[in-house]
Amino acid sequence: MKISRKDAVAWFSLFAQMDGETELSVRQTEIAYAVLAQIERAVEKKQSDSMRLIPGLKTLKSRTLYVGKDEQFPGGCRSCLMGTGLTAVRKTNRCNLQCPFCYNFGELDCQEPIGEGLWEIGGGRYRADDLELLMEIQGKPSGVSYVYLEPFMEIELYPEVIRIFHKNGVYQHMYTNGTLCTRENLKALADAGLDELRFNLGATDCSDAVIRNMAAACEVIPRVGIETPMTPDFQRQFLEKREAIFSTGISFMNCAELHLNPNNVWNYEGEPMYMSRLGYVSPAWSRLITLDLMAQAGAENWPILLHDCSNRTKISRDMNWKHHEEARFGATSYGREFERIPYGLFLPILEDQAFPFLEEEELPAGYRPGELAL
């Protein structure tokens, strides 16, 4: 059903007041899904309009979009979207910052430790001397990524594992907020065989010190770039410092669509939200910032590649993972991270008079006021 915005506001106001205490009926759920679909269609129309303004827009076999030289497309993303997936290697359960967009916001001091001498890999726990056997039995992944929370909190532990994967020809990339980088620990990572380092530049508001650390990383690590959620603050800060950022020698920027969960979503309360395929919840402006930057990059021939790491890309990623897992056709692990849909979060976009639905219809018989039992 193509529910009207007026009816959508009325129903979501009611659902928000219910506050998850009462399960929606089947027909109420149909209405909820219809509203979310209306929002998503209108948001995607704005995204499509923005894409048409991007000079030189390219696609990686329909799995994602980018602007820039093909050879600058990050190997970690290629492994994620085209290879055997993105195997996460986790060690550090601590961070020295607290970013509003962090998936663990408000819980950074109570993250479960991995275990002394252990590494979490693909959900299992292993010691470094288990890795050769793991790869012999299960096969070598096309790539691994070092994540969660800030690897440089105990970066001295990482070279041992990096050397093992490097010896076996596995592409490796790491995420960092960049504040704890030194020439010495960057050189140690490079000597061990790290292929790619990604700086979350938004975590430090495009700090000059971190920009200098990016330049130092470019001197020793084969590929260095930025990966950060797209927010209005980051867009402004990045554009103010783009020349200094470009001069570091980085080759790419992954423009991540801001993805919200129960931990971080309240830092963005009141913003216009949409839900992608009943899965990820994001502010409607986040991907538009990506597309705006890509249009500017294409028009001005920026020296770095910009990658649209959007919710749509995440869906493609999951399809690729399931394919390599030989799962049944249509199997997916993509979905929402909220136990119940947070209906109240969508009221700001529904109440915005400047956000029209593309097409509206009267509610069908059986769904109108007085006809639908609550």
Overview of this protein structure:
With 374 residues, the protein is an alpha/beta fold. It has one domain: TIM Barrel, CATH 3.20.20. Helices cover 37% and strands 14% of the residues. It has twelve helices and 13 strands. The strands form two sheets. The protein has an eleven-stranded mixed β-sheet, with helices on both faces. The protein starts with a helix and ends in a 24-residue tail after the last helix.
List keywords for this structure.
single chain; 374 residues; alpha/beta; TIM Barrel; eleven-stranded mixed β-sheet; two-stranded antiparallel ribbon; 14% strand; globular
Tell me the strand percentage band.
5-15%
CATH architecture: Alpha-Beta Barrel
Using the CA coordinates, give the radius of gyration: 22 Å
The tally of strands reads 13
Major β-sheet strand ordering: 1-2-13-10-9-8-7-6-3-4-5
CATH topology: TIM Barrel
Largest beta-sheet details: 11 strands, mixed
Order of helices and strands: HHEEHEEEHEHEHEHEHHEEEHEHH
The helix content is 25-40%
Count of folded domains:
1
Net shape:
globular
Mean pLDDT: 96
What is the level 1 CATH name? Alpha Beta
CATH H level: which superfamily? Aldolase class I
Residue stretches low in confidence (pLDDT < 50, at least 5 long) are: none
| Distance, first to last CA | 19 Å
Number of helices: 12
Structural class by helix and strand composition: alpha/beta
